[in-house]
């Protein structure tokens, strides 16, 4: 039985979205159990479920609460109590749609980071034209990154993709840059490229070189590494474009009889396209590098999107993601230590 602790109060919609999503999730996952964390009043209309237990709290972290408030003042928030369930071993993973900065800060405070990891990263998947998905990290946890941090992201991302993919092959890693040439980019990116090439030579990761923004959606690599500022912009842009295209198609189909007739003929293809571009299917980002599993749902997710976040968290536990990340970090410890040492002395990697 896999147990998920759910912050039912987090996000833009709170219990009106999280509770129906939880009930639907339970109906399709007979080996799952949920700890539903929230204010007692939030469960007034909830019908008891044999695999769901209510864990009461007295506070809620709002979407605009400063990190300091979430971390120091609201010690009985639904977010904190959900993560506490993981720390105490009552749940294997926590899921929240709450304030990203607060979620990362509270998770890091309670669960601590793994040995060899300086900064946890947020990783999620974006659809690509090959019908699969490209994993991108970091997506907003770390705005300013040093080369050794980006190397750590590459290692953790490789563990994530290896855990969740069916085929037993080493995932490819690309470094997001303004061009494919090694001489391009700022000093941080150039030094990161050196580290990633050294890690590739040591068989720690499968680094294929620099990639550009459009490569995320071409599917040329399995993993794209970048700092949190760039990653968050890429994520929000992709969601906006997908929504615009899907919305435009729906509007055009209603325009006149000819487009309606064309839509009927092309419906199977268009339906498949809209499903592939539906960003709700890719909701659920892993906070990698912690000594416990935490998944972040988009704050504005609807019931379908939140259910997908629960699915991703469940799959991560089922595929032993935490152990795989720890194993990958231990395997690549010499490379990570070398990078940290070089950074401390201001050296470049040979």
UniProtKB/TrEMBL annotation:
Its EC number is 2.3.1.274. It is found in: Cytoplasm. Its main location: cytoplasm. Keywords: Acyltransferase, Cytoplasm, Lipid biosynthesis, Lipid metabolism, Phospholipid biosynthesis, Phospholipid metabolism, Transferase. It holds the Pfam family FA_synthesis. The keyword Cell wall biogenesis/degradation does not apply. GO terms for cellular component: cytoplasm. One of its GO terms (biological process) is phospholipid biosynthetic process. Pathway: Lipid metabolism; phospholipid metabolism. HAMAP family: PlsX. This is Phosphate acyltransferase. It comes from Comamonas kerstersii. The gene is plsX.
